[in-house]
């Protein structure tokens, strides 16, 4: 059963990122950092890994003169995370 778990979501930070993104259309860097209570560098490194896998989309823009980065989950990310959660649920049911 554990072969159906996605290695990309082994980290609690990545679980948190994907959980927040799944229930929101898009979330900006500061909000995500605050909700997960992690450092800039920690969030940036996990987001880069998820982006490289094609699981998140990064949007960069300026609001006034300030840069703003926001993120959303891609269809591939939604599918992979749903598969991961389903595998976790099956594993829990088997061991209960």
Name the descriptors.
96 residues; alpha+beta
Describe this structure in words.
With 96 residues, the protein is of the alpha+beta class. 55% of the residues lie in helices and 19% in strands. The chain is built from 4 helices and 3 strands. The chain has helices at residues 12-22, 29-36, 40-52, 75-95; strands at 27-28, 56-63, 66-73. Strands 1-3-2 form a 3-stranded antiparallel beta sheet. Strand 2 (56-63) and strand 3 (66-73) form a beta hairpin. The protein is elongated. The model has no long low-confidence stretch (mean pLDDT 94).
* N/C terminus separation: 14 Å
Determine the strand fraction and express it as a percent band: 15-25%
**What strand order characterises the main sheet?**
1-3-2
Task: Extract low-pLDDT stretches.
Answer: none
Q: In angstroms, what is the radius of gyration?
A: 14 Å
Mean pLDDT: 94
């Amino acid at each position: 059963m554990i072969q159906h778990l996605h290695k990309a979501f082994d980290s609690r930070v990545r679980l948190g990122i994907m959980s927040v993104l799944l229930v929101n259309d898009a979330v900006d860097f500061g909000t995500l950092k605050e909700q997960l209570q992690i450092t800039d560098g920690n969030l940036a490194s996990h987001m880069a890994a998820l982006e490289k896998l094609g699981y998140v989309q990064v949007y960069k823009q300026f609001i006034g003169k300030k840069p703003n980065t926001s993120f959303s989950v891609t269809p591939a990310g939604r599918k992979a995370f749903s598969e991961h959660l389903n595998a976790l649920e099956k594993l829990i049911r088997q061991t209960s």
